[in-house]
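FAQ: What does the model actually see?

It sees only this:
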Amino acid sequence: MTIRITIDHLLTQRGMSVGEFADRIGITPANVAVLKNGRAKAVRFSTLDAICRVLQCQPGDILHYED
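And it is asked to produce this:
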């Protein structure tokens, strides 16, 4: 079981850089890279809330389950 966080597509659609995204959600660009590269072991609900608010999406738009 793997849960993937796919934010690259949404960032591209919104024309947002990783640095701008990191600033707007309140984490470092390095931690955004951890999310993007699938190395994150957990995501705080407050971070998930900020991601969804900034990208104007639902959690299901960025979290994907793979068997």
